[in-house]
Amino acid sequence: MHFLDLILKKRNGSSLTTEEIRYFVTNYVAGNIPDYQMAALLMAIWFVGMDERETADLTFAMRDSGEIIDLSDIPGVIVDKHSTGGVADTTSLITTPIVAACGAKVAKISGRGLGHTGGTIDKLESIPGFSTDIEMSRFRQIVADCGISIIGQTQNLVPADKLLYALRDTTGTVDNISLISSSIMSKKLASGSEAIVLDVKTGNGAFMKNRDEAEALARAMVSIGKAAGKDVLALVTDMNQPLGNAVGNALEVREAIDILQGDHQGNLLDVSTELAVRMILLAGVADDETTARSNVAAALQSGKALDRLAAMIEAHGGDPEVCRDTSRLPAADKVISIRSGAAGYVTGMAANEIGMAAMLLGAGRARKSDTIDPAVGLWMKKRIGDYVDKGDELAVFHVSDTSRLEEAESRFLRAITLGQEPPGKMPLIYAIISCP
Questions:
Q1: Which residues neighbour 98 within 8 Å (Cβ) at sequence distance 6 or greater?
Q2: Does residue 187 carry a catalytic annotation?
Q3: CB 411, CB 376: distance < 8 Å
Q4: Which is it for the CA torsion 188, 192, 194, 195, positive or negative?
C-alpha cells in the first residue's frame, strides 16, 4: 500500500477502505509517514469529507493507537460526559457529583484548556493540593469508592489524536466534522465508559457557530457511539453568552460549589441538571425522566452532591474544606468593577470576546507553554435581557497582573451590546439527539 495513492484517492472523491484508514493512522503514529504527506491527506479529507463508515473507522483506528482503559471490574454502568467547550462552561464540576450522588459512577478523563480559560483539569488544579496525575489503579479505586474521578489524559491514551490534532491545528484542517468527531470520540471510547452524554455548544462563544453545524456534529458523534456499541446521547446547547457568571479557574470552581450549596440559579445550573438527568437515565439508575429529575433535585437539596465533590477532592489529595469555605481557593490581588458607559437592555454578548478578556488577565493560555494564574478572571453581573443604567456594574475583574488590564476592559466592554428594547428569550437547549 502506497500512501500517495491514498492521498490521490481521497482527493479525487473516493472513500478510503477500513484497511487503508487503519494503515495511515498506524504508520503515522509509528513515524513512517512524514508530516507533509499527512497534511496533504488531511486537506483532502477537509475538502472532500468522509462518509459515516469512514468516520467511524477513523475513530476506531485512533482509539486503538494506544491504551484502552478497562473499567469492567467496577460494578454498575460507567457513564461519562463531554462538552465541546465554551465560556464559563463549568458543567463537569456540577453534573458529575450530582450523578455520583444519584448512584451512578463517573470515570472522566479531561484535558487542559488552550484559549480564553483553562479546561476542567486546570479548574480542578486550582483547588489546593488536587492532583489530576494519578495511577490508573488509583483512578479505578476512586471511581469505585467515591462514584466519581476526573483525571488528565495519559500519554498512552490515543496518541494518534495528539499527533493529528497538532498537525490539523497548523494546517487549517481543524473545522471538519469527521475530523472533530473522530478526535473527540476516539478519546471517549478509549476511556472505558459504557455510556456517554455529549454537550455540543453552538453560538458565538462556541466552536460550532450555528445550530445546523452543531447538530451535524452531534449526529456524527452519536452515530460513532452506536457503531462502537455504546449508549450515546447529545444535547445541543446555547453559547451566545457565557453559560455561568464566572470566567476563570478558581472562580469557576467557586461558582460550581455555590450551585451545589444551593446558593445560585441560572443557565449553568439548568444545563448541568439536564446533562445529569440524561447521564442517570443512560446509567440505568432511574427508570424514567420524572424519577431522574426528582433524584437530581434531591441530590442537590440534601447536600449529597456537594459531599460527592468533597469526597473526590479529598481522594485526589485536595482540600475538601473548599466545599464549605470557598475563601480557601486562590484569590487575586485586586477586584475591580467594570461599569456601563450607557443605559439600556443587554441585547447581546460576544461570549468568545468575554473569554478573551479573561485570558488577557491571565486566566487562559495563548500558547501551550503559557502559565495560567488560577486566581484571576472575571465575574459577570449582568445577563442578556437585564436592564442597566449608566454606571451600573457589568462585571468585576479579579486581577493580579495589571499590565493588560486596560486591553481586557476594552475588549470586555466591546463585547456587550445594549439596546432600548428588551431582547427575545433565547432557547438554552436546541435539540436532544440519540441513537435511532
A1: 260, 272, 273, 276, 296, 299, 300, 305, 308
A2: yes
A3: no
A4: negative
For residue 415, the domain's CATH number is 3.90.1170.30
Would you state the pLDDT for residue 364?
83
Q: Of the listed 10, 82, 108, 254, which one is catalytic? A: 82
Task: Confirm whether 82 is a catalytic residue.
Answer: yes
Q: Any catalytic annotation for residue 149?
A: no
Residue 401, in any domain of the structure: yes
Q: Which of 161, 231, 238, 373 is catalytic?
A: 161
Domain of 19 in residue numbering reads as 3-49
Active-site residue (options: 140, 187, 278, 308): 187
Asked if 14 and 142 sit in the same domain, the reply is: no
Residue 115, C-beta contacts closer than 8 angstroms, at least 6 positions apart:
85, 355, 359, 364, 365
From residue 236, give the alpha-carbon distance in Å to each of 130, 200, 213, 280, 372.
31, 5, 10, 18, 29
Residue 72 lies in a domain: no
Domain-embedded: residue 144? yes
Residue type present at position 338: I
Question: Is the model's pTM score more than 0.90?
Answer: yes
The residues with which 4 forms a beta bridge, in sequence order, are none
Question: Which mean pLDDT values do the consecutive 10-residue runs of the chain (436 residues) have?
Answer: 93 97 97 96 96 97 95 91 92 97 94 69 94 92 95 88 90 92 94 95 93 96 96 97 96 97 92 97 96 98 98 98 97 97 97 95 78 94 97 98 96 98 94 88
From the list 63, 81, 140, 168, the catalytic residue is 168
Task: Return the pLDDT at 76.
Answer: 86
Q: Which of 183, 186, 191, 340 does the annotation list as catalytic?
A: 183
Q: Report how far residue 50's alpha carbon sits from residue 179's, in angstroms, rounded to the nearest whole number.
A: 9
Length of the chain measured in residues: 436
